[in-house]
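FORM 7B - TANDEM STRUCTURE REPORT

SECTION 1: FIRST PROTEIN
SEQUENCE AND TOKENS:
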Amino acid sequence: MMSCVAVSCQQYGESVREAFLSASGPEAVAGDRPILLKPNLVNASPFPVTTHPDFVAAVIEAIREHTSVAMVIAEGCGAMELETEEIFVRLGYDCLSEKYGVKLLDLNHAPLVHQENPTCSIFPEMWLPEVAFTHCIVSLPVLKAHSLAEMTGALKNMMGFPPPSHYQRGGWKKSAFHGRMHRSIKDLCQYIMPDFTIMDATVGLSQYHLGGAECCPPIGKILAGSDALAIDRMGCELLGMNWQDVGYLR
């Protein structure tokens, strides 16, 4: 199974399908487990801050050519003033859900399970949504620079899972992760990792994850594969960064 591929993107449909097939996506999602599609919907800002619903639609179509298992689109936003369900509506995910018959799940309020890992220095125990352990996780991030993590992609996208009931310290719903960001991401990924990733690197945000300058020229790529770390390292290089300078990627 190939760990990571990069495909030039002219339009989502054909490029997402090509990336999914080239990176052995059908094998990665094979089996009886339902599939959890995890976009990056950190707040209600449109693409390229958040994952475009048309991109998710292309992923659904590509996957459904190979399996009929149930799928759910799941996210737990980090926004201070909004709930995930409101963001689903503002960004058009409610229409996407209705069109494809794929349910929406707010991870911030999903049933939880307690996990322990004494090798983790920041989070030797964690509360996480039960679906993180019952579903095949397909991470669908957008490629962006990040003010605290240097870059955000497949691995940092897992921060949508931890619930604010345990990890909100003040404003942002996942703020417990912000103080020691790199080590926190590493710890989180000791508990949950994507089974497969398809990253929208068609544009790219070059300086800041919540807006700011877009990459010029646009990157024009779709990245896909079963190795989320390899994808993030490739994405980092596409942003003009050395992944060895990014703590959680190193």
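SECTION 2: SECOND PROTEIN
SEQUENCE AND TOKENS:
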Amino acid sequence: MKEQEIIKAINKIEGIGGMTVNERLYVCGLMDEFENALIKDKAKKILELLGVDKPSIDKIVK
């Protein structure tokens, strides 16, 4: 999935800021994309695009 497609999926969802990371991934249809991300940078980018803060990203993507 290209970055533009990820952004499009995220932009379809309202109220994303009040959701947990797993909820954000699920409602945006990005759970499989995230889980299958073999490159940590891609996983980090997905989390950044979802609005997850850097300390949380560092904990999730080790």
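SECTION 3: OBSERVATIONS ON SECOND PROTEIN
The first helix runs from residue 3 to 11.
The mean pLDDT is 90.

SECTION 4: SIGNATURE
Preparer initials: ____
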